[in-house]
Amino acid sequence: MKKKGPKYLQLADSLRKDIASGLHPVGSFLPSERALCGQYGVTRITVRGALRELEKQGLLSREIGRGTRIVAAPTESNRLEVLFFKWMSPFADPLYADFFSSLSRHTSEIGYQVILSYISDAQAVKRHLERLRTPVAKGIVVAGAWEWYGPVIGEVETRYPTVLVGTPHGSLRADVLEPDYEGAVSMAVDHVLRIGHRRLLLLAGYFPPEEGRDERTISAFRQVARERGLSADEAVVWSKREAPSSSLLALDGSASFSVPEDLYRRFPPPRAVLAISPTPACLSIDLAIRKGLRVPDDVAVLSLQDSSAFALRSPSITGVSLYGAETGMRAVECLRERLANPVLPRRLERAPVRLSIRASCGAPASAPRSIPSLPADAAAQKLPQHAAP
User: Fold this and answer.
1) Residue 263's domain is classified under what CATH number?
2) DSSP codes of every residue in 134-193
3) Residue span of the structural domain in which 186 resides
4) In Å, what is the CA distance from 141 to each residue of 288, 329, 335?
5) Confidence of residue 63 (pLDDT cuts 50, 70, 90)
6) Which residues neighbour 362 within 8 Å (Cβ) at sequence distance 6 or greater?
7) Is the CB of residue 200 less than 8 Å from the CB of residue 271?
8) What percent of the chain has pLDDT over 70?
9) 262-293 pLDDT, tens per residue?
10) Whole-model pTM?
């Protein structure tokens, strides 16, 4: 704590050394903020700044009601960096929490240090690209929102061995773990049919057309519906991109993920709503309750992207995990294999998906199932066909 610079960075460096020495082992919890204040003779503001810094580096994870857990140990070499293109820490993001906890834990287990950077605006993107022009890590894992990483993935993958967890549109070199949107749709439709619903409505049209996510999901939904013998009236697609703004209802005050106001006034009304992402799923349930409908007795709701927050809602929401713990572990393994053998052919794999059945669409139970990754040669032939609309 005698170095020059902000006190919170000095404290972060001291805590990092204590973690590296084993004083605070991986998996344990740090002392409370009050205890750290007394131990190091600093204010609570300084402690919180230091903890935020170590969380950005992927060493700590805040757990509500429990404290601050150590999830990785720093080392002097073998550093891997995770670039998370989103506005919040991935450990706090309910869509990615399991993915990043698994990634950090597995990176530490194999003897690497993980440095986490989350990038929330254009200035942050520019700053990180400048920093990457000098060697900072052995390899990079990229994840997050395509509209942020899509324009810059080419520059990142030309400088470092890179694993991209997301839509590969715009990437030419990185190994790719792509979300299995088709597998998620198939799993969701089969579950809805299994519990007896045959009038399905898909809510889509929320993502940039260049990403191709909506188009792939809609195409898969229609194909699966045909294969399962559903008629056009039994498998309806609603796209926000094509809907007039006057017909939308944004119950959360934001029009970004609004739902159709007449969602439950259609004839015949849907018995199951499949939402492409968590917010439309939540809004669909809120709207159903406002209309006096019972969930799931009158209408079932399922999200094609799971969130750890779903289990805390009432009713809890059924969802398909696209970025689970298995994907976090596989991302680390892909990067380690690439570092060990740089001449490996580029790998394009499908990330495993998992269905968590909760109260909004079936009995509160768990039905895990993984979709196997495509072989590299099959993936190389298939993925580019739907990576862009």
Assistant:
1) 3.40.50.2300
2) S---SEEEEEE-HHHHTTTHHHHHHHS-EEEES--TT-SSSEEEE--HHHHHHHHHHHHH
3) 181-321+354-372
4) 40, 12, 8
5) confident
6) 191, 195, 296, 300, 318
7) yes
8) 85
9) 899 887 889 999 999 998 999 999 999 999 99
10) 0.70
Q: Does residue 286 share a domain with residue 234?
A: yes
Length of the chain, please?
389
Distance between CA 107 and CA 112 in Å, rounded? 5
CA distances, 245 to each of 255, 259, 264, 354 (Å): 9, 10, 18, 34
How many domains is the chain built from? Answer: 3
Sign, Cα dihedral of 103, 104, 109, 112: positive
Confidence grade of residue 247 (pLDDT, cut at 50, 70, 90): low
What is the rounded distance in angstroms from the CA atom of residue 331 to the CA atom of residue 325? Answer: 10
Q: 């200035």: which residue's tokens?
A: 123
- Say yes or no: 204 and 334 in one domain: no
Predicted confidence (pLDDT) at residue 95 exceeds the cutoff of 90? no
